[in-house]
Design brief:
The chain is mainly alpha-helical. The chain has a single domain, classed as MetI-like fold (Orthogonal Bundle), CATH 1.10.3720.10. 70% of the residues lie in helices and 0% in strands. It contains eleven helices and no strands. The protein has helices spanning 11-27, 30-52, 90-126, 128-142, 146-157, 161-170, 173-187, 191-198, 203-239, 251-258, 267-294. α2 (30-52) packs across α3 (90-126). It is elongated.
Amino acid sequence: MSTEEIGHPGAERFRRKRGRDMLVALSHSPAGMAGAFIILVVIVCAIAAPWIAPHDPKQHELRSRFQAPMLAEGGDARYILGTDQLGRGILTRIIYGSRISVLVGISSVAISGTVGMILGLLSGYYGGLVDILLMRIADAFLGIPFIIMVIAVAGLVGGGLLTVIVILGLTGWVAYSRVVRSKTLSVREQEYVLAARALGRRKAWILLRHVAPNVLDSVIVLATLEIARIILAESTLSFLGLGVQPPTVTWGLMLADGRDHVGSAWWMTTFPGLAITITVLGVVLLGDWLRDVLDPRLRH
């Protein structure tokens, strides 16, 4: 269905059918199912942390400090994944840490995706000086490695949850803008866009009605994959002390707490590291599946 038909009575039926088709496609993709399951578990942990976590993530229990995981030698059944230097349960802190990863990932991607999509639409549709100016700015951003730029900005403005979200959001728009610009350059030459111009439709109306819906699939795929990078970037900032600050629990801070005890309490870094790795893997698997489904160039 083309974008001219967005307001057609059959559009809702089309969207429902497309949703069902995607669910069927997901059920036939083991990798996509694995990614969706991992993400679902992380989201459930983030939402239900107060109810499923076995302990208070900030409560110190010095008599239980450096307690080994339950299945290790000397382990305690009360602490399935062991405790840290202050006697706080590792499993509990991993569950609560998922809240920050989900919040930062979704919020930052929402900011960068929105900014990048708007700039990409303007650049690709209007062209000329607007395109040259925006793409030169994008090239300047691309000339600096993402993580280096994030660390530099965080070092200048300081840490904190809101600061991290804004920094990651406003430094990650370039990828979206370039993808959207490329797609817009193609869409603006389609017959229905040319017809809308001939009818005297305003440029803003054409962008919102005809161009934006046709680039949205590419933005969704990119946003899904970018969440993985954002989670890694947030963990890096927190590990370096430039991100979310204590007493808020994050996986990066857990890694920082455990780096001085790797030899004596390996579980303090192993399990948070696994949480980051598995979550990023889940996001990448789901993103790859979405790309295969939504990108017509990859359909067989």
